[in-house]
Structure to design on (1510 residues):
């Protein structure tokens, strides 16, 4: 029975996909006419044959051979090596340098001083098996960059993930973190929120540890036996508040070029106000074991063999952190291939190349695939191919401390980018498994078109088909999601919204450039994130060691770039944008209702004294505080704005045949207009309290960190109880969407292509 | 703000409940007329004043002073002490003895023999702090009674909870337990299902361990610092398959009296076919650490500081178990207070008194409250009170090995009970917290009436109000349920359905006697269940040390008994039964739909090859097998039967005023008829493959163990894919419900009391 099914599967897969070549196209290519589509497809077929796994692997071995963080000697060597490669492949390439604030630790002391003594190791022991882990002298130690300096001794409080909901629970238990050092586990939200919220609640220091339940032995065997984080493993990472602005904390909004206006360190809003230190669970265990007080709720418990208590105390901790607050060079590698017809329309493609230590996975798994993609395009150019539009391929430095390389470059070239950039396409880590994409929704159709042509190396169906299967069976790339049956009847799979956390942030959030972030993953587990154990040895033992997904990422991103570079008309499809905005609109309406309902339920429960009746009196809990409900909100103008956009999107699609009749010059003018279409979605004032973040559709959440909030002005105002602001922001976003719709209609009118 | 709310709470509570006395009654008492209600209320008020916490505590200290399992010397002493107490309080009392199969271990060996060596301790180290734990010579060691003998060495496989869903996951991973020893953690279902299912899948042995995530350090500090299970702690317990029949495995259906027909041990269906041994997590850790093979899914992971793998092997285990298969006496204590007017209507009240070791909590927390209730009724009798009907108060022996004392007694007196028993009221463990009740739904109204008159000692509102609050805020007694807002607009809180797991089983499942099981709990945590650490020292340090809930249970159960003993007409309300059956009917309809939908989804996923597309090919998973959908089923005859019952219930309620006009003799005859009403809900043939279980409404689930399945014939046939049987069973239950309705209508007709 089983065997039979397996055989029939192979047979049906074979029918679907003879060999590894893509299935024949059935429809027209978006943005092309039948003739140009034919030419494009021929070039794409040639392109697809080029990327080579062995070369991707060799790129990885080279780039991750030594620690290569910002300012390190090997990062400089990598930059030069990258420039040489690009040149070898026929690209123009150079290094663009920014000097930025890059603090490094001078002193790190963490010790338990009561009720017993323990001095934290704060060190990642090299593995005998992994030669890369022995390069101690050039490794950056475990720290959170942009932590404050400090030297404090105080009682310890455990705050779980240290997110807003966790503080509500602390409050119910009458536990204050004021004057305390909090210890939080990684997870549940962006790391920088942990110290930020701790400081807002009066804590004087924040320790962040990696719990073994999350990426240690709770998930799989730890290194060197398995891929998970050993007790020593430390997750480095930035705690700069990139929800305000990313990049050099001293140069918000402008490039860190010589002569740029720089803030004093004390003026930089994004630098953390309290000291923060990341530690491994080996060091965390004695600290947590020394806590007393009530036992934490079930969701707060981790994988250490002890009972998790809140504290405060009797554990008392001494934490001393002293940093060298010097500047370091950030070396972006910029490679260009000039467009033959519309050189002033830019397609920007990026992946960072700085790692916290060796960074074989983060970011080199993505960067080495991107390089192979660039080589393939170089090959193609040697065979006679020319992009109509200008390609800008980048290797960003300084992503890890806070998206610095991409931000400083984008801020430096903001005027050009605002005029010229039609697409920013990002990648970062890459691995075995499922395709995933997030970004601006006018790109959704194109992403679907392309992924329907890429063959998954493991299952031999298209990566689109495999992505669809993952949504249906397990709700997404990572196991444990809610199965989504709807996608079975849809021809397009949704792309996710994105906020921050990789180099697309400035392009999307600040400049309003149509952006995408793509990659493969979801199969191999690992616990080496931002540690000294993320090395080529690890990849060769626990990762995509044959690099089968490197060429696949190169194919996917490369074809997206080629389509954008060569389409007769830039291949945006605004219907997906309108459809997605409708969904966000619906979510906001539901949010108002659910906030009203929650407030009503809380009010009733308080009035009926239900909390004292259900809480164990021995535990002395406080009842939760009352909630302020939002007033009813009128979303009709948002509904109407989205309806206008929907109409404009339909008009635009209907006008496609007419676009074919335009003269080359008219089409060039049309594309120039189209390039800037998304700038209409920027707010002049930015979002409240963070003027740098101007995108009114997608933004990193103030309490989500990397995570996105869509229609953020309205949504966050509602979530955070600022109801007049929600109404005001609703007006702003209505106008932006109307402007976008009007701009599209104007283009159609200008070129006389209405149907 | 907070302070203010606390003050206003106190004020409003004071308004509700001046002092500790009950609020005045607003309505009439069910089954009483205004005059008899007044008399009843006066006696109840006197009764409520009697139960005394100190006496409950003294009962506990006496009964749990030494190990007192079946056949032990101290259990004999307890039996005699109980008889003496009852006599002292004015009751008739005697011991009723049954000689039953009660195997005890002669040899227990568990050792890891490869890849390393470890000999399991299998012993619970005494605590220096707890003198009770030192009585090693009289303690029963850790074992699962009715395990098979055996001596096997085989590879080990970890099966999580060892439930059906777990075997589906093993199957997907291509892991067979055939010829293996399985290790399962406690939880997820009744312990006896673990070896039963293991044996069905070909395993040769079963080890069951207590994972620290479930009742060890994952929940709170372990003994002696906190209340949770220490590494040595072993959960004893029966693995006799009581879903077939409880009681002495050798005498199904009849009392184990001298001369009773006894099966050979080899013929007894309820004795486990393979050896089973319970162990602590101290002994489990080296075994689990020695397992290899794939990593288990997230839900399978426990709290040990290691990576949980499936196996099989390389861990190889030697398990040897040899039992003494002798008989032991089971000593039920039976106390009676004869009814003054209807002595042949019986109100039976029970709680077991045998423990696995000292059993201070299980069962003595309940038994010592029951004793105080019996003393109070004795006091009341001395003051002139007389129950109209006969009270039978029992202390069951042999509950732990398989509800033996209650089952053998009920089987011995089956004929009398079938004719005379109007109520069986059970309790078992008791503790601080919320009231909980389960049982026959014609008792729901009475339970609500009574709990609206009992004042909660911790919050000073009625226990009904507190139970309601717990349902609204946290979905029930245990934290983590789904809040149920509906109960805010209802005057009655639902009682749960019950299946097995305590002494009500034979009364309810086999004899069809209206049954209830009640108790308080949900606040104090403990990890001493069925271990040598369940002692008076534990209660005095971590339990309800002031025994504030002992008198409350005595009040609650005592008043339920008094109402049933003295009502003019037995206080059943069939409307709740009809309402509840409607809900079960709805559940069955939904079950058919969801089984159809699941099968359809699975079929589609298999046809589309979605599993191979989503599973990591490196893991070599098998696709899940296809599911057979149930055909559409016609529930109209069940709908109609329930509608008839609903009508009859309404007629019965409408006839209440007319019942008052009956002569005493007529009322006596009416009550005699009413007493047997629920026997209509028994099936002559019992449930398929288990003729002993005759209740067609409530039964322990074959794959639920203690847990209930309602309308079990239909529901289990559907769940287990026997669809013709489901249809057949539907006919049987339709008829029973129609018979019940007709019987109620007949009573109304017979006594000419229709409205």
């Amino acid at each position: 029975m089983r065997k039979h099914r397996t055989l029939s599967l192979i047979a049906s897969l074979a029918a679907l996909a003879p060999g590894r070549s893509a299935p024949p196209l059935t429809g027209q290519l978006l943005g092309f006419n039948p003739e140009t589509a034919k030419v494009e497809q021929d070039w794409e077929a040639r392109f697809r044959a080029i990327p080579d796994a062995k070369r991707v692997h060799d790129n990885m071995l080279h780039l991750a051979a030594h620690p290569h963080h910002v300012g390190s000697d090997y990062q400089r060597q990598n930059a030069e090596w990258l420039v040489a490669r690009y040149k070898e492949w026929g690209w123009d390439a150079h290094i663009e340098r920014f000097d930025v604030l890059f603090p490094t630790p001078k002193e790190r002391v963490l010790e338990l001083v009561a009720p017993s003594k323990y001095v934290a190791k704060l060190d990642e022991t090299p593995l005998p098996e992994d030669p890369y882990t022995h390069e101690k002298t050039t490794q950056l130690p475990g720290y959170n960059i942009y932590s404050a300096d400090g030297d404090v001794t105080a009682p310890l409080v455990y705050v779980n993930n240290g997110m807003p909901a966790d503080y509500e629970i602390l409050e119910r238990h009458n536990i204050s973190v004021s004057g305390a050092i909090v210890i939080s586990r990684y997870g549940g939200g962006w790391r920088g929120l942990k110290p930020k919220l701790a400081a807002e609640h009066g804590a004087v220091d924040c320790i962040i540890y990696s719990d073994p339940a999350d990426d240690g032995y709770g998930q799989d065997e730890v290194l060197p036996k398995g891929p998970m984080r050993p007790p020593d493993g430390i997750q480095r990472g930035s705690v700069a508040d990139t929800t305000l602005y990313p990049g050099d904390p001293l140069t918000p909004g402008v490039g860190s070029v010589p002569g740029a206006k720089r803030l004093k360190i004390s003026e930089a809003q994004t630098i953390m106000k309290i000291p923060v230190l990341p530690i491994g669970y080996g060091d965390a265990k004695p600290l947590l074991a020394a806590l007393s007080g009530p036992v934490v709720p079930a969701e707060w418990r981790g994988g250490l063999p002890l009972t998790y208590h809140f504290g405060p105390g009797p554990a008392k901790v001494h934490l001393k952190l002293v940093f060298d607050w010097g500047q370091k060079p950030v070396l972006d590698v910029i490679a260009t291939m000039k467009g033959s017809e519309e050189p002033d329309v830019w397609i920007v493609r990026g992946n960072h190349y700085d790692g916290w230590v060796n960074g074989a996975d983060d970011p080199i798994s993505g960067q080495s695939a991107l390089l192979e993609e660039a080589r393939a395009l170089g090959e193609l150019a040697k065979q006679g191919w020319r992009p109509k539009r200008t390609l800008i391929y980048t290797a960003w430095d300084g992503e890890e401390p806070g998206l610095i390389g991409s931000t400083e470059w984008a801020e430096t070239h903001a005027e050009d980018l605002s005029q010229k950039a039609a697409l920013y396409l990002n990648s970062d880590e890459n691995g075995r498994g499922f395709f995933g994409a997030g970004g601006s929704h006018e790109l959704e159709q194109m992403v679907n078109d392309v992924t329907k042509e890429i063959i998954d190396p493991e299952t031999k169906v298209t990566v689109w088909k495999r992505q669809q299967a993952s949504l249906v069976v397990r709700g997404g790339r990572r196991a444990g999601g809610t199965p989504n049956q709807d996608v079975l009847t849809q021809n397009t799979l949704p792309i996710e919204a994105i906020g921050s956390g990789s180099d697309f942030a400035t392009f999307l959030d600040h400049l309003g450039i149509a952006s995408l972030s793509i990659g493969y993953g979801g199969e191999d587990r690992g616990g080496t994130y931002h540690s000294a154990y993320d090395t080529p040895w690890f990849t060769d033992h626990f990762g995509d060691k044959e690099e089968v997904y490197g060429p696949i990422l190169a194919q996917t991103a490369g074809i997206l770039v080629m389509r954008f570079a060569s389409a007769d008309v830039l291949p945006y499809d605004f219907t997906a944008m309108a459809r997605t905005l409708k969904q966000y609109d619906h979510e906001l309406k539901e949010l108002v209702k659910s906030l009203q309902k929650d407030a009503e339920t809380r009010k009733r429960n308080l009035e009926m004294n239900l909390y004292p009746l259900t809480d164990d009196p021995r535990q002395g809990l406080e009842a939760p505080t009352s909630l302020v409900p939002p007033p009813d909100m009128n979303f009709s103008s948002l509904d109407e704005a989205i309806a206008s956009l929907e109409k404009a999107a339909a008009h635009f699609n209907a006008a496609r045949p007419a676009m074919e009749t335009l003269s080359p010059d008219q089409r060039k003018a049309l594309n120039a207009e189209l390039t800037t279409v998304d700038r209409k979605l920027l707010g002049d004032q930015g979002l409240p309290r963070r003027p740098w973040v101007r995108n009114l559709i997608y933004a990193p959440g103030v309490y989500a960190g990397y995570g996105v909030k869509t229609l953020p002005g309205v949504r966050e105002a509602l979530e955070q109880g600022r109801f007049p602001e929600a109404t005001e922001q609703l007006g702003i976003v209505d106008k932006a969407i109307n402007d976008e719709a009007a701009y599209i209609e104007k283009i159609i009118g200008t070129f006389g292509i209405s149907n």
